[in-house]
């Protein structure tokens, strides 16, 4: 304890000594620089000022390093501001007023030193409170670095549209050049009117003004058109790329991501990415070229006033930086809230029948309203931040205008400018001020908009966890399926194993029925056989080869599933039966529909196989949808057919017909999940699943004779 106190006291003494030495060195150098004989000429004077300031800065930094070891970035900034501020002040006074600076006079040197020390400490305090050197700031820098990389990637994606972009940039430059000369000729007209009026000069000034205005309008129109074409082509391309990548993702991905978020990426983020980046580049380039041109014209009119005007730039940059940080944070929160609200709305629309039958309309409207309120609160905060920002920006601009008019009047009186020059200068200045603010804004906004690009790229780059890279496509497939020691838990619920050490053999030409209490993992076996998920342990073999080595298209043609909830897509019945198949004749379609007992009801429809089924097959009954789904599976002539609880929505007649048709394919491996005893009894092998394992296996008679779990299950069904 005593040792720690002693170490603390010694550290404080050490720092105090370092501070006192730094102040002594600084005062010595400061007074020494003021006592030097003033050189003749403005340039020599300015050179001496800046050399002395740099020497002070280096000396102070070295003394601090020697005394304290490592010095913080904050201290570096304080030293830099403290050492360079008198030189900045002197330069401004010398250039603008040609006056000897206050700091130059020996008597005022102490006051000047104190002022620069106070100002540097105040600036450091301001910097610390607004832009702290915290982890957040470091993260911000890293984010900006990432944003730059993303921005370059967006630009590379624009490659097919480079000719359009190039055309846009050419017209943009033309428009800017023409625009730049308009204030110049306005000033000229005022000088002609104010001095000796000469008709020819007046006419030529007006003619040039008209020509430049026309050139700027035509070029601006061409620029806009070309860039919009590039944006729309780009957005389309990115959407297709993103959609393609999304459809390749494993099912677990869709279970962990909200639908609203995916649709937001597809619709809003892709559009934002294309529009904002391209439009921002357009504005950035236009503003940059214009600003540079205008600054050179302003320099021509009065370089002193130009320097004064440019002093506004760092202040604007600082204000913009603070605004961007706050606004960006609110924008992200807003995007998340909007995704939640969209999700609530789309969930209700897609499940409107359930909402209506449970009389939950008011509850849903309230839920949606609550989410909208969150958005509204965020929007108000965003608007307030924007209002404060606009106010500060305007105040800075106005302050600068007042200063410019004051010095402009001095320069006209001293004959350094004409009134026309000042008018041209004012016109340029208001444009340059706006442009500099726009430049600062656009840089920030561009970084924000590439945030949307980042999210889009995140999905485009995502590698599906169930790899679709297999390429096995054997000529002949028998359809023998082996589940080997499978262990599996759903990604959404990794701590709850559904299957454990699960092994099962499905033979060609045989029907296997999976039975068991609800929630024991029957449908999970089907999902694994379809490669929707990858088991954590063990593997599934098809004809002795792991499922993952088969080509994706081949596998899903040879292994077909009919689920308990048939899903149809909007389009005709024919489209739904041939879904995912490139070429399929009408005969094949009709054959499959006959086997599925669907042909008769389809024939009765006015448009037959061309009848539209509506969104999600909403214009058909559940049994009709189920039969079309069976036809869709059968038309592929699969080697392995899986029927997951299909009999629940089929009447007895349909069931019999379908089962008779299925018995016609003697080589097919048939896996049936069923609860109805009539279906189960006919199976060659019945497998009872319990506790994630195969509990019992055998024919109906064998299992009944065992009087085990299967026997109890059947007894219970009979009792029900
Ligand atoms: N996508 C999923 N994410 C997380 N857990 C799931 C998912 N699907 C199913 N489960 C869980 O896995 C277990 C097995 O479900 P499964 O659908 O395979 O049962 P089942 O035997 O087919 O039931 P049923 O006879 O009612 O159709 C259940 O506890 C279920 O809650």
Automatic annotation (TrEMBL):
Keyword Coiled coil: no
Compartments, record wording: Endomembrane system
Topological type in the membrane: Multi-pass membrane protein
Residue ranges constituting the ABC transporter domain according to the UniProt record: 481-716
GO molecular function, one term: ATP hydrolysis activity
GO (cellular component) term, any one: endomembrane system
Lineage: Eukaryota, Metazoa, Chordata, Craniata, Vertebrata
Name under which the protein is recorded: Transporter-associated with antigen processing 2 isoform 2
Ranges where the ABC transmembrane type-1 domain occurs: 166-448
Transmembrane segments: 12-32, 74-97, 162-185, 206-234
PANTHER family according to UniProt: ATP-DEPENDENT PERMEASE MDL1, MITOCHONDRIAL, TRANSPORTER 2, ATP BINDING CASSETTE SUBFAMILY B
UniProt-listed InterPro entries: AAA+_ATPase, ABC1_TM_dom, ABC1_TM_sf, ABC_transporter-like_ATP-bd, P-loop_NTPase, Type_1_exporter
Superkingdom of the source species: Eukaryota
Keywords annotated in UniProt: ATP-binding, Membrane, Nucleotide-binding, Peptide transport, Protein transport, Translocase, Transmembrane, Transmembrane helix, Transport
Pfam families: ABC_membrane, ABC_tran
CDD domains registered for this protein in UniProt: ABC_6TM_TAP2
Similarity-based family: Belongs to the ABC transporter superfamily. ABCB family. MHC peptide exporter (TC 3.A.1.209) subfamily.
Gene3D superfamilies to which the protein is assigned, alphabetical: ABC transporter type 1, transmembrane domain, P-loop containing nucleotide triphosphate hydrolases
């Amino acid at each position: 304890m005593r040792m720690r106190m002693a170490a603390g006291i010694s550290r404080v003494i050490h720092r105090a000594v370092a501070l006192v030495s730094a102040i002594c060195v600084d005062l010595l150098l400061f007074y020494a620089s003021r006592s030097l004989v003033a050189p003749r000429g403005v340039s020599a004077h300015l050179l001496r000022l800046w050399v002395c300031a740099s020497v002070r800065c280096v000396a102070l930094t070295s003394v601090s390093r020697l005394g304290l070891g490592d010095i913080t970035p904050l201290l570096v900034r304080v030293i830099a501001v403290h050492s360079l501020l008198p030189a900045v002040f002197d330069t401004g006074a010398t250039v603008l007023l040609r006056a000897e600076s206050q700091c130059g006079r020996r008597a005022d040197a102490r006051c000047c030193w104190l002022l620069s020390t106070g100002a540097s400490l105040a600036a450091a305090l301001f910097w610390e409170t607004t832009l702290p050197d915290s982890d957040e700031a470091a993260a911000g820098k890293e984010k900006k670095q990432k944003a730059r990389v993303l921005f370059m990637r967006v630009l590379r994606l624009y490659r097919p549209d480079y000719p359009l972009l190039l055309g846009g940039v050419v017209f943009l430059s033309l428009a800017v050049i023409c625009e730049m000369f308009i204030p110049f000729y306005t000033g000229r007209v005022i000088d002609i009117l104010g001095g000796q009026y000469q008709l020819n000069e007046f006419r030529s000034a007006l003619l040039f003004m008209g020509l430049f205005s026309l050139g700027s309008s035509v070029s601006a129109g061409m620029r806009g058109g070309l860039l919009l074409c590039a944006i729309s082509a780009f957005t389309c391309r990115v959407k297709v790329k993103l959609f393609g990548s999304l459809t390749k993702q494993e099912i677990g991905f869709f279970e962990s991501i909200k639908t609203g978020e995916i649709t937001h990426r597809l619709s809003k983020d892709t559009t934002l990415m294309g529009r904002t980046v391209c439009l921002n580049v357009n504005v950035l380039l236009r503003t940059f070229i214009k600003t540079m041109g205008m600054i050179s014209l302003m320099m021509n009119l009065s370089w002193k006033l130009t320097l004064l005007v440019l002093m506004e730039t760092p202040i604007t940059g600082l204000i913009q930086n603070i605004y961007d940080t706050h606004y960006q944070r609110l924008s992200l929160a807003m995007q998340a809230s909007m995704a939640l609200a969209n999700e609530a709305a789309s969930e209700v629309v897609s499940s409107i029948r359930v909402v209506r039958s449970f009389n939950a309309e008011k509850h849903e409207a309230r839920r949606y309203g609550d989410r909208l309120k969150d958005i509204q609160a965020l929007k108000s905060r965003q608007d307030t931040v924007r209002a404060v920002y606009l106010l500060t920006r305007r105040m800075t601009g106005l302050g600068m205008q007042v200063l410019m008019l004051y010095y402009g009047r001095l320069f006209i009186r001293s004959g350094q400018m004409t009134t026309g020059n000042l008018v041209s200068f004012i016109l340029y200045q208001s444009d340059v001020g706006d442009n500099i603010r726009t430049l600062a804004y656009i840089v920030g906004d561009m970084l924000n908009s590439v945030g949307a690009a980042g999210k889009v790229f995140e999905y485009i780059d995502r590698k599906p966890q169930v790899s679709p890279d297999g390429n096995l496509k054997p000529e002949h497939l028998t359809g023998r399926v082996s589940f080997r020691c499978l262990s599996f838990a759903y990604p959404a619920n990794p701590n709850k194993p559904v299957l454990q050490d699960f092994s099962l053999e499905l033979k060609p030409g045989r029907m296997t029925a999976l039975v068991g209490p609800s929630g024991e993992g029957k449908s999970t076996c089907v999902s694994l056989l379809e490669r929707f998920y990858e088991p954590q342990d063990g593997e599934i073999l098809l004809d002795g080869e792991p499922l993952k080595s088969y080509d994706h298209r081949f596998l899903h043609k040879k292994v077909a599933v009919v689920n308990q909830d048939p899903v149809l897509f909007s389009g005709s019945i024919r489209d739904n039966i041939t879904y995912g198949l490139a070429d399929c004749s009408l005969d094949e379609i009709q054959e499959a529909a006959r086997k599925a007992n669907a042909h008769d009801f389809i024939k009765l429809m006015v448009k037959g196989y061309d009848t539209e089924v509506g969104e999600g097959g909403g214009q058909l009954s559940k049994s009709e949808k189920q039969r079309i789904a069976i036809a869709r599976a059968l038309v592929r002539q699969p080697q392995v057919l899986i029927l997951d609880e299909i009999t629940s929505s089929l009447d007895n007649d349909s069931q019999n017909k379908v089962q008779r048709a299925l018995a016609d394919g003697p080589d097919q491996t048939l896996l049936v999940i069923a609860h109805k005893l009539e279906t189960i009894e006919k199976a060659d092998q019945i497998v009872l699943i319990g506790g994630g394992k195969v509990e019992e296996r055998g024919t109906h008679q064998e299992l009944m004779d065992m009087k085990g779990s299967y026997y109890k299950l059947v007894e219970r069904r009979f009792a029900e």
